[in-house]
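Example for tutorial group B:
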């Protein structure tokens, strides 16, 4: 008897939750409509990827003017990054975000979840959705483990000579060609973090889904590609270097966006972004040349406009 009494309400509850689920499914206000791609196959454990990333990160800090974690710009990027990684599928990497005080529009991700965004990228982004699009793309390279797969390929053909070279190729970034022309001898191992067109496409598709799932206008991503193209021409920036045809890139991203359930509204920007835009407009990031020559190490960081830097 007692048993009957407890079971009946339990059944009723179960029915209620079923109905509730059905109602939610019918309304479907925030459907996650994106593709979830599998990471590329490799023999690195997550621990090894994190360790590798940590070593490369230390090298990046030695070779590039990375803003301190206490910088308001860095704190903002970390905040935005954590909003985005909350939507990232797959392994829960220990994501961390940094700002490189360099003018070029660029960003890169190390194995294990360290992501670097150039100050020039923040300066060039017209709104928060565009900046978030770049970051979601980089997060996707970590999710899909692209850089360790590149590493494994290089190891197989005996091109990897040491961890320092990983960071060298990272540090070269978009200015690789220019730096190579200056003969600074840092090009060994270049291509390690250089992504194939297929990997870039995957990061775009996974990334635009993360952007959408975080509530941002997914069009921010293709919009920013157009900004890059306007500044550097097709293929001029590292972010686009593997894409001789950025028009095609915009096309397939827009096609992916068309499969998303439209939302009544999207986040385009935020007061925090507008404040940071104001902050970075007063900063004078280093040029790629100043970074490659090491001159940045002798200067005080974050010179205001018209500062003594040359
Ligand atoms: Zn990429």
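The residue assignment follows.
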């Amino acid at each position: 008897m007692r048993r009957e009494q407890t079971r009946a309400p339990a059944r009723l509850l179960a029915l209620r939750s079923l109905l509730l689920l059905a109602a939610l499914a019918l309304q479907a206000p925030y459907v996650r409509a994106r593709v979830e791609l599998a990471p590329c196959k490799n023999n690195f454990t997550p621990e090894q990827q994190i360790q590798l990333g940590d070593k490369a990160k230390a090298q990046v800090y030695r070779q590039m003017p990375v803003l301190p974690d206490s910088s308001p710009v860095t704190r903002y990027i970390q905040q935005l990054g954590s909003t985005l990684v909350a939507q990232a599928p797959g392994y829960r990497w220990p994501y961390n975000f940094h700002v490189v005080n360099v003018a070029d529009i660029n960003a890169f991700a190390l194995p294990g979840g360290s992501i670097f965004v150039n100050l020039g990228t923040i300066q060039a982004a017209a709104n928060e959705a565009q900046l978030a699009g770049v970051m979601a793309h980089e997060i996707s390279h970590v999710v899909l483990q692209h850089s360790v797969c590149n590493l494994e390929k290089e190891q197989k053909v005996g091109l990897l000579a040491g961890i320092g070279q990983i960071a060298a190729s990272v540090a070269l970034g978009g200015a690789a060609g220019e730096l190579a022309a200056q003969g600074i001898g840092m090009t060994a191992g270049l291509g390690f973090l250089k992504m194939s067109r297929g990997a870039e496409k995957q990061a775009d598709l996974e990334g635009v889904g993360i952007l959408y799932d975080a509530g941002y206008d997914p069009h921010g991503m293709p919009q920013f590609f157009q900004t890059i193209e306007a500044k550097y021409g097709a293929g001029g920036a590292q972010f686009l270097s593997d894409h001789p045809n950025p028009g095609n890139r915009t096309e397939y991203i827009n096609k992916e966006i068309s499969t998303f359930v439209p939302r009544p509204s999207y986040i385009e920007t935020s007061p925090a972004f507008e404040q940071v835009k104001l902050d970075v407009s007063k900063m004078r990031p280093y040029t790629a040349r100043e970074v490659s020559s090491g001159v940045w190490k002798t200067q005080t960081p974050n010179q205001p406009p018209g500062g003594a830097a040359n």
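The first strand starts at residue 96 and ends at 100. Compare this with the pattern of hydrophobic and polar residues in the output above.
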